[in-house]
Design a protein that fits this description.
2 copies of one chain form a homodimer. Chain A is built from 8 helices and no strands. The first copy, chain A, is mostly helical.
Chain lengths: 227, 227
Protein backbone atom coordinates (compact mmCIF):
# COMPACT_ATOMS: atom_id res chain seq x y z
CA UNK A 1 0.00 0.00 0.00
CA UNK A 2 2.89 2.36 0.75
CA UNK A 3 4.40 1.53 -2.59
CA UNK A 4 1.02 2.12 -4.20
CA UNK A 5 0.55 5.56 -2.70
CA UNK A 6 4.13 6.38 -3.67
CA UNK A 7 3.20 5.65 -7.25
CA UNK A 8 0.07 7.79 -6.96
CA UNK A 9 2.27 10.65 -5.76
CA UNK A 10 4.61 10.07 -8.65
CA UNK A 11 1.67 10.35 -11.03
CA UNK A 12 0.70 13.66 -9.47
CA UNK A 13 4.27 14.97 -9.53
CA UNK A 14 4.72 14.00 -13.16
CA UNK A 15 1.53 15.84 -14.13
CA UNK A 16 2.78 18.90 -12.25
CA UNK A 17 6.18 18.78 -13.92
CA UNK A 18 4.49 18.39 -17.29
CA UNK A 19 2.19 21.33 -16.55
CA UNK A 20 5.13 23.49 -15.60
CA UNK A 21 6.83 22.70 -18.94
CA UNK A 22 3.64 23.40 -20.91
CA UNK A 23 3.04 26.71 -19.14
CA UNK A 24 6.64 27.75 -19.64
CA UNK A 25 6.40 26.89 -23.35
CA UNK A 26 3.42 29.22 -23.77
CA UNK A 27 5.07 32.00 -21.75
CA UNK A 28 8.30 31.70 -23.74
CA UNK A 29 6.49 31.62 -27.09
CA UNK A 30 4.73 34.84 -26.13
CA UNK A 31 8.02 36.41 -25.03
CA UNK A 32 9.54 35.39 -28.38
CA UNK A 33 6.65 37.19 -30.08
CA UNK A 34 6.74 40.38 -28.03
CA UNK A 35 10.53 40.69 -27.84
CA UNK A 36 11.02 39.46 -31.41
CA UNK A 37 13.42 36.86 -30.06
CA UNK A 38 13.89 34.33 -32.87
CA UNK A 39 16.29 31.93 -31.09
CA UNK A 40 13.78 31.69 -28.24
CA UNK A 41 10.99 30.84 -30.71
CA UNK A 42 13.14 28.06 -32.13
CA UNK A 43 13.93 26.78 -28.65
CA UNK A 44 10.24 26.47 -27.80
CA UNK A 45 9.74 24.23 -30.82
CA UNK A 46 12.81 22.16 -30.02
CA UNK A 47 11.71 21.61 -26.43
CA UNK A 48 8.28 20.31 -27.40
CA UNK A 49 9.57 16.75 -27.38
CA UNK A 50 10.13 17.05 -23.62
CA UNK A 51 6.39 17.64 -23.16
CA UNK A 52 5.63 14.75 -25.53
CA UNK A 53 7.82 12.47 -23.43
CA UNK A 54 5.93 13.50 -20.31
CA UNK A 55 2.68 12.38 -21.92
CA UNK A 56 4.11 8.93 -22.52
CA UNK A 57 5.46 8.81 -18.96
CA UNK A 58 2.09 9.76 -17.45
CA UNK A 59 0.41 7.04 -19.52
CA UNK A 60 2.95 4.46 -18.37
CA UNK A 61 2.53 5.28 -14.69
CA UNK A 62 -1.26 5.43 -15.05
CA UNK A 63 -1.48 2.11 -16.87
CA UNK A 64 0.70 0.49 -14.26
CA UNK A 65 -1.46 1.86 -11.45
CA UNK A 66 -4.58 0.60 -13.22
CA UNK A 67 -3.24 -2.97 -13.19
CA UNK A 68 -3.29 -2.83 -9.39
CA UNK A 69 -7.06 -2.84 -9.10
CA UNK A 70 -7.42 0.62 -7.62
CA UNK A 71 -10.48 1.74 -5.66
CA UNK A 72 -13.20 3.50 -7.62
CA UNK A 73 -12.08 6.98 -6.49
CA UNK A 74 -8.44 6.25 -7.27
CA UNK A 75 -9.46 4.84 -10.63
CA UNK A 76 -11.19 8.07 -11.53
CA UNK A 77 -8.16 10.04 -10.38
CA UNK A 78 -5.91 7.97 -12.63
CA UNK A 79 -8.08 8.29 -15.73
CA UNK A 80 -8.48 12.03 -15.14
CA UNK A 81 -4.68 12.30 -14.89
CA UNK A 82 -4.43 10.68 -18.33
CA UNK A 83 -6.91 13.18 -19.75
CA UNK A 84 -5.12 16.13 -18.17
CA UNK A 85 -1.87 14.95 -19.68
CA UNK A 86 -3.47 14.79 -23.13
CA UNK A 87 -4.67 18.36 -22.72
CA UNK A 88 -1.24 19.54 -21.56
CA UNK A 89 0.38 17.90 -24.54
CA UNK A 90 -1.90 19.95 -26.79
CA UNK A 91 -1.08 23.11 -24.88
CA UNK A 92 2.53 22.37 -25.84
CA UNK A 93 1.48 22.05 -29.49
CA UNK A 94 -0.29 25.41 -29.34
CA UNK A 95 2.85 26.97 -27.84
CA UNK A 96 4.82 25.63 -30.83
CA UNK A 97 2.30 27.06 -33.19
CA UNK A 98 2.63 30.47 -31.49
CA UNK A 99 6.43 30.20 -31.66
CA UNK A 100 6.29 29.47 -35.39
CA UNK A 101 4.16 32.57 -36.06
CA UNK A 102 6.47 34.60 -33.79
CA UNK A 103 9.30 33.50 -36.06
CA UNK A 104 7.35 34.50 -39.21
CA UNK A 105 6.37 37.85 -37.72
CA UNK A 106 10.00 38.49 -36.75
CA UNK A 107 10.86 38.61 -40.48
CA UNK A 108 8.60 41.63 -41.07
CA UNK A 109 8.18 45.05 -39.43
CA UNK A 110 5.96 44.98 -36.37
CA UNK A 111 2.36 45.96 -37.08
CA UNK A 112 1.60 47.61 -33.75
CA UNK A 113 2.41 47.05 -30.06
CA UNK A 114 0.94 43.86 -28.70
CA UNK A 115 -1.59 44.47 -25.94
CA UNK A 116 -4.51 42.07 -26.31
CA UNK A 117 -2.46 38.97 -27.09
CA UNK A 118 -0.29 39.17 -23.93
CA UNK A 119 -3.48 39.81 -21.95
CA UNK A 120 -5.13 36.73 -23.42
CA UNK A 121 -1.99 34.72 -22.68
CA UNK A 122 -1.99 35.85 -19.05
CA UNK A 123 -5.65 34.89 -18.68
CA UNK A 124 -5.20 31.49 -20.33
CA UNK A 125 -2.13 30.69 -18.23
CA UNK A 126 -3.90 31.66 -15.01
CA UNK A 127 -6.80 29.39 -15.95
CA UNK A 128 -4.36 26.56 -16.56
CA UNK A 129 -2.58 27.07 -13.25
CA UNK A 130 -5.84 27.26 -11.30
CA UNK A 131 -7.21 24.12 -12.98
CA UNK A 132 -4.02 22.23 -12.13
CA UNK A 133 -3.84 23.39 -8.54
CA UNK A 134 -7.52 22.46 -8.14
CA UNK A 135 -6.53 18.98 -9.30
CA UNK A 136 -3.64 18.45 -6.90
CA UNK A 137 -5.18 20.26 -3.94
CA UNK A 138 -8.57 18.55 -4.43
CA UNK A 139 -10.43 21.83 -4.69
CA UNK A 140 -13.32 21.51 -7.13
CA UNK A 141 -14.51 25.00 -6.11
CA UNK A 142 -11.30 26.45 -7.57
CA UNK A 143 -11.85 24.44 -10.75
CA UNK A 144 -15.34 25.90 -10.96
CA UNK A 145 -13.94 29.45 -11.09
CA UNK A 146 -11.97 28.52 -14.21
CA UNK A 147 -14.94 27.56 -16.38
CA UNK A 148 -16.70 30.95 -16.79
CA UNK A 149 -13.40 32.64 -17.60
CA UNK A 150 -13.26 30.70 -20.86
CA UNK A 151 -15.93 32.99 -22.25
CA UNK A 152 -13.79 36.08 -21.59
CA UNK A 153 -10.92 34.65 -23.60
CA UNK A 154 -13.36 33.63 -26.36
CA UNK A 155 -14.70 37.17 -26.46
CA UNK A 156 -11.23 38.68 -26.68
CA UNK A 157 -10.38 36.29 -29.51
CA UNK A 158 -13.52 37.24 -31.42
CA UNK A 159 -12.92 40.94 -30.87
CA UNK A 160 -9.34 40.65 -32.10
CA UNK A 161 -10.51 38.63 -35.09
CA UNK A 162 -12.92 41.42 -36.04
CA UNK A 163 -10.30 44.15 -35.58
CA UNK A 164 -7.72 42.30 -37.62
CA UNK A 165 -10.27 41.58 -40.37
CA UNK A 166 -11.09 45.27 -40.74
CA UNK A 167 -7.41 46.16 -40.66
CA UNK A 168 -6.73 43.73 -43.50
CA UNK A 169 -9.46 45.28 -45.63
CA UNK A 170 -8.03 48.77 -45.10
CA UNK A 171 -4.41 47.79 -45.61
CA UNK A 172 -4.04 44.67 -47.72
CA UNK A 173 -0.24 44.80 -47.43
CA UNK A 174 -0.62 43.76 -43.78
CA UNK A 175 -2.66 40.63 -44.60
CA UNK A 176 0.04 38.04 -43.93
CA UNK A 177 0.91 39.62 -40.58
CA UNK A 178 -2.74 39.93 -39.59
CA UNK A 179 -3.26 36.26 -40.45
CA UNK A 180 -0.34 35.26 -38.24
CA UNK A 181 -1.76 37.30 -35.36
CA UNK A 182 -5.17 35.67 -35.86
CA UNK A 183 -3.57 32.26 -35.59
CA UNK A 184 -1.84 33.24 -32.35
CA UNK A 185 -5.09 34.57 -30.93
CA UNK A 186 -6.83 31.31 -31.83
CA UNK A 187 -4.01 29.31 -30.20
CA UNK A 188 -4.47 31.24 -26.95
CA UNK A 189 -8.21 30.65 -27.13
CA UNK A 190 -7.55 26.93 -27.49
CA UNK A 191 -5.18 26.93 -24.51
CA UNK A 192 -8.01 28.42 -22.46
CA UNK A 193 -10.24 25.62 -23.84
CA UNK A 194 -7.74 23.02 -22.61
CA UNK A 195 -7.67 24.68 -19.17
CA UNK A 196 -11.48 24.53 -19.16
CA UNK A 197 -11.45 20.85 -20.13
CA UNK A 198 -9.08 20.15 -17.25
CA UNK A 199 -11.24 22.17 -14.83
CA UNK A 200 -14.35 20.24 -15.92
CA UNK A 201 -12.57 16.94 -15.36
CA UNK A 202 -11.49 18.09 -11.88
CA UNK A 203 -15.06 19.04 -10.92
CA UNK A 204 -16.23 15.67 -12.25
CA UNK A 205 -13.50 13.92 -10.29
CA UNK A 206 -14.18 15.49 -6.90
CA UNK A 207 -17.88 16.28 -7.09
CA UNK A 208 -18.84 13.16 -9.04
CA UNK A 209 -21.03 15.32 -11.25
CA UNK A 210 -20.52 15.37 -14.96
CA UNK A 211 -20.41 18.99 -16.06
CA UNK A 212 -18.61 18.38 -19.30
CA UNK A 213 -20.57 19.66 -22.28
CA UNK A 214 -22.82 21.68 -20.01
CA UNK A 215 -20.16 24.38 -20.06
CA UNK A 216 -19.43 23.76 -23.69
CA UNK A 217 -23.04 24.32 -24.58
CA UNK A 218 -23.06 27.74 -22.96
CA UNK A 219 -20.01 28.80 -24.93
CA UNK A 220 -21.60 27.52 -28.04
CA UNK A 221 -24.61 29.70 -27.60
CA UNK A 222 -22.46 32.65 -26.68
CA UNK A 223 -20.55 32.19 -29.89
CA UNK A 224 -23.76 32.35 -31.90
CA UNK A 225 -25.82 34.96 -30.11
CA UNK A 226 -28.08 35.46 -33.09
CA UNK A 227 -29.04 31.84 -33.59
CA UNK B 1 -16.76 -13.56 -17.72
CA UNK B 2 -19.59 -13.68 -20.26
CA UNK B 3 -21.02 -10.57 -18.74
CA UNK B 4 -17.59 -8.98 -18.85
CA UNK B 5 -17.05 -9.68 -22.54
CA UNK B 6 -20.56 -8.43 -23.23
CA UNK B 7 -19.57 -5.13 -21.68
CA UNK B 8 -16.36 -5.06 -23.75
CA UNK B 9 -18.50 -5.50 -26.86
CA UNK B 10 -20.78 -2.74 -25.72
CA UNK B 11 -17.76 -0.46 -25.36
CA UNK B 12 -16.71 -1.28 -28.92
CA UNK B 13 -20.24 -0.79 -30.28
CA UNK B 14 -20.62 2.54 -28.53
CA UNK B 15 -17.34 3.78 -30.02
CA UNK B 16 -18.53 2.68 -33.45
CA UNK B 17 -21.89 4.40 -33.06
CA UNK B 18 -20.12 7.54 -31.87
CA UNK B 19 -17.72 7.39 -34.83
CA UNK B 20 -20.62 7.08 -37.23
CA UNK B 21 -22.25 10.19 -35.76
CA UNK B 22 -18.99 12.16 -35.89
CA UNK B 23 -18.32 11.16 -39.50
CA UNK B 24 -21.84 12.00 -40.50
CA UNK B 25 -21.55 15.42 -38.82
CA UNK B 26 -18.47 16.23 -40.91
CA UNK B 27 -20.08 14.95 -44.12
CA UNK B 28 -23.27 16.94 -43.48
CA UNK B 29 -21.37 20.12 -42.59
CA UNK B 30 -19.52 19.84 -45.89
CA UNK B 31 -22.78 19.24 -47.76
CA UNK B 32 -24.25 22.31 -46.07
CA UNK B 33 -21.26 24.28 -47.35
CA UNK B 34 -21.27 23.01 -50.93
CA UNK B 35 -25.05 23.01 -51.39
CA UNK B 36 -25.51 26.23 -49.39
CA UNK B 37 -28.03 24.41 -47.24
CA UNK B 38 -28.51 26.59 -44.16
CA UNK B 39 -31.04 24.41 -42.28
CA UNK B 40 -28.62 21.49 -42.62
CA UNK B 41 -25.80 23.61 -41.17
CA UNK B 42 -28.01 24.44 -38.18
CA UNK B 43 -28.94 20.78 -37.75
CA UNK B 44 -25.28 19.77 -37.53
CA UNK B 45 -24.80 22.19 -34.65
CA UNK B 46 -27.95 21.05 -32.90
CA UNK B 47 -26.97 17.40 -33.15
CA UNK B 48 -23.56 17.94 -31.56
CA UNK B 49 -24.98 17.15 -28.12
CA UNK B 50 -25.64 13.58 -29.30
CA UNK B 51 -21.89 13.14 -29.87
CA UNK B 52 -21.15 14.77 -26.50
CA UNK B 53 -23.49 12.29 -24.81
CA UNK B 54 -21.65 9.43 -26.46
CA UNK B 55 -18.39 10.63 -24.92
CA UNK B 56 -19.93 10.47 -21.46
CA UNK B 57 -21.39 7.03 -22.20
CA UNK B 58 -18.03 5.66 -23.37
CA UNK B 59 -16.39 6.99 -20.21
CA UNK B 60 -19.05 5.40 -18.01
CA UNK B 61 -18.70 1.97 -19.64
CA UNK B 62 -14.91 2.24 -19.59
CA UNK B 63 -14.75 3.25 -15.92
CA UNK B 64 -17.07 0.41 -15.00
CA UNK B 65 -14.93 -2.08 -16.91
CA UNK B 66 -11.81 -0.76 -15.19
CA UNK B 67 -13.27 -1.54 -11.76
CA UNK B 68 -13.33 -5.21 -12.74
CA UNK B 69 -9.55 -5.62 -12.70
CA UNK B 70 -9.11 -6.30 -16.39
CA UNK B 71 -6.08 -8.07 -17.85
CA UNK B 72 -3.25 -5.84 -19.06
CA UNK B 73 -4.28 -6.13 -22.72
CA UNK B 74 -7.91 -5.38 -21.92
CA UNK B 75 -6.85 -2.48 -19.78
CA UNK B 76 -4.98 -0.93 -22.68
CA UNK B 77 -7.98 -1.53 -24.94
CA UNK B 78 -10.24 0.29 -22.48
CA UNK B 79 -7.97 3.31 -22.03
CA UNK B 80 -7.45 3.55 -25.79
CA UNK B 81 -11.25 3.51 -26.22
CA UNK B 82 -11.46 6.52 -23.87
CA UNK B 83 -8.84 8.36 -25.91
CA UNK B 84 -10.57 7.54 -29.19
CA UNK B 85 -13.81 8.87 -27.79
CA UNK B 86 -12.14 12.13 -26.83
CA UNK B 87 -10.82 12.50 -30.36
CA UNK B 88 -14.23 11.74 -31.86
CA UNK B 89 -15.84 14.34 -29.64
CA UNK B 90 -13.43 16.91 -31.05
CA UNK B 91 -14.17 15.79 -34.59
CA UNK B 92 -17.78 16.68 -33.76
CA UNK B 93 -16.64 20.13 -32.59
CA UNK B 94 -14.75 20.67 -35.84
CA UNK B 95 -17.89 19.68 -37.79
CA UNK B 96 -19.83 22.35 -35.87
CA UNK B 97 -17.18 24.88 -36.65
CA UNK B 98 -17.44 24.01 -40.37
CA UNK B 99 -21.24 24.24 -40.19
CA UNK B 100 -21.01 27.71 -38.62
CA UNK B 101 -18.77 28.98 -41.44
CA UNK B 102 -21.07 27.31 -44.00
CA UNK B 103 -23.88 29.36 -42.49
CA UNK B 104 -21.82 32.59 -42.70
CA UNK B 105 -20.75 31.86 -46.27
CA UNK B 106 -24.37 31.20 -47.21
CA UNK B 107 -25.14 34.87 -46.53
CA UNK B 108 -22.74 36.05 -49.25
CA UNK B 109 -22.26 35.21 -52.95
CA UNK B 110 -20.12 32.13 -53.50
CA UNK B 111 -16.46 32.91 -54.19
CA UNK B 112 -15.74 30.02 -56.55
CA UNK B 113 -16.66 26.34 -56.86
CA UNK B 114 -15.33 24.24 -54.01
CA UNK B 115 -12.87 21.60 -55.16
CA UNK B 116 -10.03 21.33 -52.65
CA UNK B 117 -12.16 21.45 -49.51
CA UNK B 118 -14.41 18.51 -50.48
CA UNK B 119 -11.25 16.62 -51.47
CA UNK B 120 -9.69 17.29 -48.08
CA UNK B 121 -12.92 16.23 -46.37
CA UNK B 122 -12.96 12.94 -48.30
CA UNK B 123 -9.36 12.25 -47.34
CA UNK B 124 -9.89 13.09 -43.67
CA UNK B 125 -13.04 10.98 -43.44
CA UNK B 126 -11.31 8.01 -45.08
CA UNK B 127 -8.49 8.31 -42.57
CA UNK B 128 -11.01 8.36 -39.75
CA UNK B 129 -12.87 5.30 -41.04
CA UNK B 130 -9.64 3.34 -41.56
CA UNK B 131 -8.36 4.22 -38.09
CA UNK B 132 -11.63 3.06 -36.53
CA UNK B 133 -11.86 -0.16 -38.48
CA UNK B 134 -8.23 -0.87 -37.56
CA UNK B 135 -9.31 -0.50 -33.93
CA UNK B 136 -12.29 -2.86 -34.04
CA UNK B 137 -10.76 -5.38 -36.43
CA UNK B 138 -7.44 -5.41 -34.55
CA UNK B 139 -5.45 -4.48 -37.63
CA UNK B 140 -2.50 -2.27 -36.70
CA UNK B 141 -1.22 -2.54 -40.29
CA UNK B 142 -4.34 -0.67 -41.46
CA UNK B 143 -3.77 1.96 -38.77
CA UNK B 144 -0.22 2.36 -40.05
CA UNK B 145 -1.49 3.35 -43.51
CA UNK B 146 -3.40 6.25 -41.96
CA UNK B 147 -0.40 8.02 -40.46
CA UNK B 148 1.48 9.13 -43.62
CA UNK B 149 -1.74 10.43 -45.17
CA UNK B 150 -1.85 13.17 -42.55
CA UNK B 151 0.95 14.93 -44.39
CA UNK B 152 -1.10 15.06 -47.61
CA UNK B 153 -3.96 16.80 -45.83
CA UNK B 154 -1.48 19.18 -44.14
CA UNK B 155 0.00 20.01 -47.55
CA UNK B 156 -3.42 20.70 -49.05
CA UNK B 157 -4.27 22.95 -46.12
CA UNK B 158 -1.03 24.90 -46.52
CA UNK B 159 -1.53 25.22 -50.27
CA UNK B 160 -5.09 26.47 -49.81
CA UNK B 161 -3.90 28.90 -47.13
CA UNK B 162 -1.37 30.35 -49.56
CA UNK B 163 -3.90 30.62 -52.40
CA UNK B 164 -6.49 32.29 -50.22
CA UNK B 165 -3.90 34.72 -48.80
CA UNK B 166 -2.95 35.88 -52.30
CA UNK B 167 -6.58 36.11 -53.30
CA UNK B 168 -7.28 38.36 -50.31
CA UNK B 169 -4.44 40.68 -51.25
CA UNK B 170 -5.74 41.00 -54.80
CA UNK B 171 -9.39 41.41 -53.85
CA UNK B 172 -9.82 42.78 -50.32
CA UNK B 173 -13.63 42.64 -50.65
CA UNK B 174 -13.37 38.84 -50.45
CA UNK B 175 -11.45 38.86 -47.16
CA UNK B 176 -14.25 37.72 -44.85
CA UNK B 177 -15.16 34.86 -47.18
CA UNK B 178 -11.52 33.84 -47.61
CA UNK B 179 -11.10 33.81 -43.82
CA UNK B 180 -14.13 31.54 -43.43
CA UNK B 181 -12.70 29.16 -46.03
CA UNK B 182 -9.34 29.17 -44.23
CA UNK B 183 -11.07 28.19 -41.00
CA UNK B 184 -12.85 25.30 -42.75
CA UNK B 185 -9.60 24.12 -44.28
CA UNK B 186 -7.95 24.20 -40.86
CA UNK B 187 -10.88 22.26 -39.35
CA UNK B 188 -10.44 19.52 -41.94
CA UNK B 189 -6.74 19.43 -41.24
CA UNK B 190 -7.52 18.96 -37.55
CA UNK B 191 -9.96 16.15 -38.28
CA UNK B 192 -7.13 14.40 -40.11
CA UNK B 193 -4.96 15.02 -37.02
CA UNK B 194 -7.58 13.32 -34.84
CA UNK B 195 -7.69 10.36 -37.23
CA UNK B 196 -3.91 10.19 -36.98
CA UNK B 197 -4.02 10.30 -33.18
CA UNK B 198 -6.50 7.41 -33.20
CA UNK B 199 -4.35 5.45 -35.66
CA UNK B 200 -1.29 5.95 -33.45
CA UNK B 201 -3.20 4.73 -30.41
CA UNK B 202 -4.31 1.64 -32.35
CA UNK B 203 -0.75 0.79 -33.38
CA UNK B 204 0.34 1.27 -29.77
CA UNK B 205 -2.51 -0.93 -28.59
CA UNK B 206 -1.87 -3.89 -30.86
CA UNK B 207 1.85 -3.67 -31.47
CA UNK B 208 2.76 -2.51 -27.97
CA UNK B 209 5.06 0.07 -29.50
CA UNK B 210 4.66 3.70 -28.76
CA UNK B 211 4.75 5.59 -32.02
CA UNK B 212 3.03 8.69 -30.75
CA UNK B 213 5.14 11.80 -31.28
CA UNK B 214 7.41 9.96 -33.68
CA UNK B 215 4.86 10.73 -36.36
CA UNK B 216 4.22 14.17 -34.96
CA UNK B 217 7.86 15.01 -35.20
CA UNK B 218 7.98 14.19 -38.90
CA UNK B 219 5.02 16.45 -39.59
CA UNK B 220 6.67 19.16 -37.63
CA UNK B 221 9.74 19.06 -39.78
CA UNK B 222 7.65 18.87 -42.91
CA UNK B 223 5.85 22.00 -41.82
CA UNK B 224 9.11 23.88 -41.43
CA UNK B 225 11.26 22.61 -44.26
CA UNK B 226 13.57 25.58 -44.06
CA UNK B 227 14.32 25.30 -40.35
Amino acid sequence: MTHYSEEMNKLKDTILAMASHSESAVARAMRALVERDDPLALKVEEDDNIIDQFEIEVDDIALHLLTKAPLATELRFITVAMKISQNLERVGDEACSIARRAHDLGQEPQLKPYIDLPRMATMALEMLRDALSAFVERKPEVARTVIPRDKEVDDLNRQLHRELSSYMVERPTTISRCLALMVISKCLERIADHATNIAEEVVYLYEARDIRHAGLKENHEAENPGR
